UniProtKB/TrEMBL annotation:
Belongs to the AlaDH/PNT family. It comes from Negadavirga shengliensis. The gene is ald. It comes from the Bacteria. This is Alanine dehydrogenase. Keywords: NAD, Oxidoreductase.
Length: 370
C-alpha cells in the first residue's frame, strides 16, 4: 500500500503520525511510505532518520495527498486540506467529528473513507488509540492547571500541593476514565486535595482502591458539582462519550459560584467540551477569562510534548496501520471489529451513529459498505 504522512498544519501541532521505527516496519512488510519534508522535525525526527528507515521524502503536502492510498495523520484535516482529499482515499487520524459540523460535511463531500482513531474500540469498550493521548492529556491538565493557578498568569496564587502550615489546592476532576485517572494521580503526587466525580459505582470502587489517600470519589450529578465548585481551585473536565459530543456538566451560571482565579481545564474540548463556556484555544493563545474564571481549552494539548506523544501514538496505532495496509481497509474491517468501529464516514455516508445523531444526518450501517 502507498502510505502518506503529511506535516500537520493545525496551529502549533508538533506531532507526526509515524515515527521512523514505524516507517521501517511498514517498509519491511513491502509497503511504500511517503513523508512530507520535515513532517517529523518538531517531534525530534529528522528527514534522514526516515530515509534510513526506507521512506521517501516528498517536498509538499499536495504531493503526499496525490500519491497516497492511505493518509496517516494526527489531527483532523483543516480547511486547506479539504480540496486535496480524493474520493476513496483512506484517512486514518483523530477526527472528533461530533465537535465540528463543517469538517463532517467536508468529509462527506470528499467521498473519502474516514477511519477515526478515537472510535476504534475493543470488546471491553476500551479505546486503544485514544488511551495514549488521554494519558498524556490527563497529566498535562494538572501541569497546566498548576501553572495557571499562579497569580501572574491569572490564577488565585495558590501552590497546588501547599507547604507545611497551609492547605493544598482543591482539585475537582469530572470523569474517572483514562484522562481523569492520570490527572488524579498527577495532582495527588503533587500533594493536592483531589476529588473525582463519576457516574459509575464500579469505576469509583476501582479508583478508591488504587488511588492514594488524598484522592476521594463522589457520584457525579448537578447537586454534587454545585456543592464542590465554590471551594475548588482547579477543575478538570475529563468526560468522554465515544464519537459523540460531551455533555455540559459545568454551565455558565456556575461560574458565579466559583472563586475568582479558579482555573478550568477542559480536556474534552475536542469533543465539544464538558464546560459550557469552553471554546477551543491554541498553544499560541491558550487561555481566556469569563466571570473572573480562567479557562484553558487547548484542543491538542499533547502537541506541546510532541516527542513523547508521537512515540506513544505510534506504539498504539502501528499494529492497526499494518493490518489495514496488508489487507486493505475493507477486509481489515470485516475481519477486525475493532477497526470496523473506527469507520465514521464512507463514500459520502455517515456510518457512525453518534456522529449522525449529533447533526441529524442520515445514518447508514457500516455493513452496507463491507
Amino acid at each position: 500500500m502507498l502510505i502518506g504522512v503529511p506535516k500537520e498544519i493545525k496551529n502549533n501541532e508538533n506531532r507526526v503520525a509515524l515515527t521512523p521505527a514505524g516507517a521501517k516496519e511498514l517498509v519491511k512488510q513491502g509497503h511504500q511510505v511517503y513523508l512530507q519534508e520535515n513532517a517529523g522535525a518538531e517531534s525530534g525526527f529528522g528527514n534522514e532518520l526516515y530515509r534510513k528507515a526506507g521512506a521517501t521524502i516528498l517536498p509538499s503536502i499536495e504531493e503526499i495527498y496525490r500519491v497516497a492510498e492511505m493518509i496517516l495523520k494526527v489531527k483532523e484535516p483543516i480547511e486547506p486540506e479539504y480540496p486535496l482529499i480524493r474520493e476513496n482515499q483512506l484517512l486514518f487520524t483523530y477526527f472528533h467529528f461530533a465537535s465540528y459540523e463543517p469538517l463532517t460535511k467536508a468529509m462527506i463531500n470528499s467521498k473519502a473513507v474516514c477511519l477515526a482513531y478515537e472510535t476504534v474500540e475493543k470488546a471491553d469498550r476500551s479505546l486503544p488509540l485514544l488511551i495514549p493521548m488521554s494519558e498524556v492529556a490527563g497529566r498535562m491538565a494538572v501541569q497546566k492547571g498548576a501553572n495557571y493557578l499562579e497569580k501572574p498568569l491569572g490564577g488565585r496564587g495558590i501552590l497546588l500541593g501547599g507547604v507545611p502550615g497551609t492547605l493544598p489546592a482543591k482539585v475537582l476532576i469530572l470523569g474517572g476514565g483514562v484522562v481523569g485517572t492520570h490527572a488524579a494521580l498527577m495532582a495527588a503526587g503533587l500533594g493536592a486535595d483531589v476529588t473525582i466525580l463519576d457516574v459509575s459505582l464500579p469505576r469509583m470502587r476501582y479508583l478508591a482502591d488504587m488511588m492514594p489517600p488524598n484522592v476521594k470519589t463522589m457520584m457525579s450529578n448537578e447537586y454534587n458539582i454545585r456543592k464542590l465548585i465554590p471551594s475548588a481551585d482547579l477543575i478538570i473536565g475529563a468526560v468522554l462519550i465515544p464519537g459523540a459530543k460531551a455533555p455540559h456538566l459545568i454551565t455558565r451560571d456556575m461560574l458565579k459560584e466559583m472563586l475568582p482565579g479558579t482555573v478550568l481545564v477542559d480536556v474534552a474540548v475536542d469533543q465539544g467540551g464538558c464546560i459550557e463556556t469552553c471554546q477551543p484555544t491554541t498553544h499560541e493563545n491558550p487561555t481566556y477569562v469569563i466571570d473572573g474564571v480562567l479557562h484553558y481549552c487547548v484542543a491538542n494539548m499533547p502537541g506541546a510534548v510532541p516527542y513523547t506523544s508521537t512515540l506513544a501514538l505510534t506504539n498504539a496505532t502501528l499494529p492497526y496501520v499494518l493490518e489495514v495496509a496488508e489487507k486493505g481497509w475493507k477486509n481489515a474491517a470485516i475481519q477486525n471489529p475493532e477497526l470496523r468501529a473506527g469507520l465514521n464516514i464512507i463514500d459520502g455516508e455517515v456510518v457512525y451513529k453518534a456522529v449522525a445523531d449529533t447533526f441529524s444526518l442520515e445514518y447508514v450501517p457500516v455493513e452496507k459498505h463491507l
